[in-house]
Amino acid sequence: MKHFSLADLANWDRFTRANFVNSLSGFKSASLIASQDKDQHLNLAIFSNIVHLGADPALIAFVNRPLEAAPHTLRNIEATGFYTINHISVDQISQAHQTSAKYANGVNEFSEVGLEPMYQADFPVPFVGGSPVQYAMKLEQIIPIELNNTFLVIGSLQHAFVDPACMDADGFLNLDAAGSVASLGLSAYYDMKLVQKLPYARPVLK
């Protein structure tokens, strides 16, 4: 194993450093967040930092980059209070990745990359057609992270759409069977394979 110090990282170019640090935290979910402004201009952007915060109430968060780098999703969510999160299938990877490009404000990424907005459950923001797992969120709290000018966006679950064939009796979602992909670093995507599912861990009586 080779040792890399903070001083070593500081000497790398910013893309090498970003790739390295982004990969250290391991595989992450790859999801598309759909939002729209008050004039119903749609926005779609890929995120790989979706975080489960709790099941009761059902809270899910994501980290939004600094506003100067990624303003549209956060501003739309602040304006309307609603958004959807959509898993990415293998055949959507290229289109989903393209949403990370810095499109101008008001540009509809659905149209630009060739993905279909799909409205359901009377929710005001569309889901991504063909996404294997889709869920609707209501904004609850935005927490500024002063260390790097990012924002933790916390939402409450409103609706979920999942193929019942991918759901176990105990509520566990087999995302490999659903066809959801994972991400690593800034631009690598992986399909998933279940290695082992274990029972709830309890102390062993001796």
TrEMBL record:
Pfam families: Flavin_Reduct. This is Flavin reductase. Its cofactor is FMN. Belongs to the flavoredoxin family. The keyword Flavoprotein applies. InterPro entries: Flavin_Rdtase-like_dom, Split_barrel_FMN-bd. Residues 31-164 form the Flavin reductase like domain. SUPFAM superfamilies: FMN-binding split barrel (SSF50475). Keywords: Flavoprotein, FMN. It comes from Aquirufa avitistagni.
